[in-house]
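Team,

Forwarding the record for the chain on the shared tracking sheet. I've put the sequence and predicted structure together so nobody has to dig through attachments.
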Amino acid sequence: GQRDADRFLVDPECDIAVATMAQLLLQQGKVTDALKYFQQAAELSRTEGEIVNALSYAEATRTQLEVQEKYPQLQSRLQGMGGQFGAMR
């Protein structure tokens, strides 16, 4: 079947759309997909602040993935915290 992310019409050149999609995926616990979008958002960033912000989210998301792999029993708690990163802008 088609992946959830593919159902959304996200302009891959629009940094706001990409960053928003990353946030939504993270809140849904789709950490691997969220990481891809955070990395893409960093590549699309136009200012130093946007780059730092996007890379910070990407690194936090990458860390979350590592913790999930090492401590699978914490996964449900981490998913509940996904929304606490807040909006990128």
